[in-house]
Each structure stands twice: as C-alpha cells, then as structure tokens.
Amino acid sequence: MAPIRGPQPLPGQERRLRLLAFVKQDSVVRVDKRIEDTAMVWPHLLVIEFIAAMLFTGGLFVIGALVNAPLQDVSNPDHTPNPSKAPWYFLNLQELLLHMNPALAGVIVPTIAIVALMAIPYVDTSRMGVGTYFHSRKGRQIVVFSIVFTIAILYLLVTADALMKASQLAPITFGVFSGVHLPGTTKPGLYLPFFPQGYAAWADLHLPGGKSFIPDMIIPTGVMLFFPVVLVLLVKRIWHADRREWMIALFTGFITTYLLLTFVGTAMRGQGMDLFVPWNVPPPLP
Amino acid sequence: MLDIPANVWQRVVKSSLWRSIFRHGYPDSRKNQSLAVFTNVFLHLHPVKVRRHALAIPYTWCMGGLSFFLFLALTLTGVLLMFYYRPTENFAYQDIKDLETVVVFGQILRNMHRWAAHGMVITVFLHMIRVFYTGSYKPPREFNWVIGTLLWVITLILSFTGYLLPWDQLALWAVTVGTNMVGATPMIGGEILYLLRGSLEVSGNTLLRFYVLHVVGLPLIAGFVMAIHFWRIRKDGGISGPL
To answer: Which of A52, A231, A244, B182 is found 20 to 30 A from A140 (Cα to Cα)?
Structure first.
C-alpha cells in the first residue's frame, strides 16, 4: 500500500472545506454590500422559482384544456384568404408595410430598430439609477408623457394615411357611419370627396417618382426621424432630461409604437387590410 | 404509515451508494444549503447567496425565469409532438388532424405547445421591458443586454418557423406574408427569399426547411445563446440592484 502523501487533516477535522477559488473584488455591484443584505438561494430563491414554475405548469395545462389551438382548412396555394395576415407578433411590421416602401417596412426599419436597441448600453454609459424602476420620479413622468405623445402621434399618422391612401373617414367618425352607402361608391362608409380613388392614385399621376418615391419613402422616413427627435427635444425642454431620461422617452416611444401597431394590425384591419374601428371589423372572407 | 427506524435511515444516508450521489447532508444548515446549490449541475447556475433585493417579485416579475421555463415546456411538448408529425405536404396537415382526433391527449399537447409559444413571445418581451426600465443594461451588463436582444429575435423566429408546421390556410398565408417582407430586402431580396423557401412560393420544401430550423437549428442556437446569457448574469454581478 502506497504511503499517504501531503498534509493530513487533524483528527476530528476531516470534513473541512477546501478553498476553491479567489473571486476578485472588482465586480461593481458587490463592492460595498454588507453580508446581511443577502439570502441563501436554497431555500429562498428556489422556493419562488418552484412556485412560479408550478403556477405556470398548472396555468398552461388549464389553458390547453380549455382553449383549442386554431386549425383551418388544409393549405391551398390557389386560394388567398382576405385579409392575409402574418402571425400577430409580426403584424406591427405588416402594419408598417401598409404605410411605406416594403424594403423600408420589412427589412430596414426592423434592422435599425434592433441595432438601436442593442446600442442602448453603449450610448447611456452611466451607472446611475441601476435597480430602480424608471430611474426617478421625473423618469416616471417622462414614461407617461412619452406613452401619451406616441399614441397621439400614431393615431394622427394612421388616420391621415387611411384618409390619404383610401380617402376613408371611418377611423375619424369611429365607425358610426360605416353602414352608409354614398351614391357612386362601391364600398360602404364615408369617403373624402377630393380624392375618390385615394391620394395614392393622384400621387402616381402628379408627383415626381409617382407613389413609390415621395409618399412611400420620403414622407415615412421623414416622419420616423422627425417625431423621435421632437420627443427627445420635448423631454429635454420640459424636464431637463439627462441621457438616461431621454433614453427612457425613446424606448417608451418604441414600445408604445410596437404594441399599438400590433393592436391596429390585429384588431383594426379587415378585408383588403382596410382600416376599421375594432368593434366594426367585418369578418374575413373565407 | 410506514415508519422508518432511525438507524435504517442513518445507514442509508451513510452508505457509499448514497454518498456517491449526494455530497451533502440535508440542507438545513448554511453549509449544506451552499453545497446543495453548487454541487448540483442544475442549480449551480445560481450563486449560493443572492441579494434580498433580487428576490422581490415586483422587481423582476420572474419574467426571465419564466421565459426559460416556457422554453423548457416547449422543448418537452415539442419532442412529444415530433412522435406524431411528419413535415411533408402529404402528411403534415393530416398528422395535426390525427393529433386532435386520434392521439390520446394529442389535442391538449398541441394546445399547450401553441399557447406556451405565444406566452414565451410575451414573457421575453416583458423581460426586456423590465430590464430596460430598471436600468439593468448599464455597465457591466452591456453585452448581456445585446445577447438578450438577440434572444428576443431568436424567440420570434422560433415562433414564426413553428407557425407553418400545421400546414393549414392560416399557416401557409401567414408565412407567405411574413417571408414576402424578407423578400423586400434591397439587392439580395430574391436570393434570400429563395434560400428561406427552397422554392419560389411557400411549398413542401419550405415546410421541411422551417421544420428543421424549428426543431433542431434554432433551439440549438437559442440554447447556446441562453447559456452565455445565464453565465454572464453571474459573471456581471448577479441580478441588478441599487448600487
């Protein structure tokens, strides 16, 4: 039998812990934290995780038992449903598609949005306000203001576009006159008298580059650059916002746009992707 | 009730078999609680201790953890669905129909997979919102925010590739509309569209491509990126909190 080498534990101390590694004290969060501020993961965190997982397992099971996943007829490439919509989480992009050039809506804007999202920490590099919601009381006000501002602007933009492209008045009259049939029109509802074919048809004839240049590229690009800048200038002016705070304004604007366009695309677009008020959307053609 | 004599229990716990599996005693002391976490491969992503602040549910809303939970639930239900599903034009739709009418618990299996997928899109999004508004992307967590944004995009693509698989009208036309958007890419739109669909229109080739991406490619990528994401939470000082 080979002799046991190395230092041996003293009798009665066989189960002492070994030193596994040194952790350097350069991590930001830990520096001046007192030891009393911590809790053991077992049981305190694991209990929360376990309960959350059980609630979601149960919830998922109940929803799965009560609500069936949709299944329509077998796919048929020769029969296009009206309207044809993307999955709901892409309806914000499909909504953009109705207002601008497809390359802009489907590729360029989402790519820029994702890159801009990823760039946030490299623009706002301060370490202020980590771990508190909305940074400060000011931040909270800025969030509310940005939501209201974005909803108002988007409502104006979407309605203006419906007016100009299809001469539709439905979103302005909240669908009250959607049953009215004007003489000489094919669709029910109120329409602008000036451009019976919509502004798009007029633009094709009278604007340089037709509909695809000024209405589909220049105006949307301008709008998407102009309003975020206005929002930042406003919060800087009203609240003397620092970088973190105007970043909150921009991010809130993005989230609100994302959710609102998803809502419009899901609940306010009917046949031909025309705009309707949510309680007046006609059923899709089979 | 079965009464285990104390000495039998002691002998089991002290046996070499038991001790080869569990390297610690019952976790009722600080030492054993620590050992329970870091000698367990599934728990060791956690630190042994966390700041009390990080335990507050109104702070995190558990959204990151629940996203991961839904990912696991989707993997489990997804693997079970794979036993009944063939990704070809001739069989796909009929297999889904059979799941709903013939396979025992097939309908609820499919439902759970679908609702969990929608749920994950929502929880990942809410997690991103939470991380932003608590300023948790700030140094030293910048890169983990980038990784997280990537995971959000991967989640959307995972969900989108799964959308085609039932091969009904809803699936076909949603994916037609969705891929058309990609086809609008300047210069190389046509090529990308063909690469994605494997044909000019959405067809059986597209179904196979989306299936392989959905069940192998994207989950692997997602798992890989998630490993980095979780690892970096630890390395960057745990869940964020006030300085």
So the answer is: A52
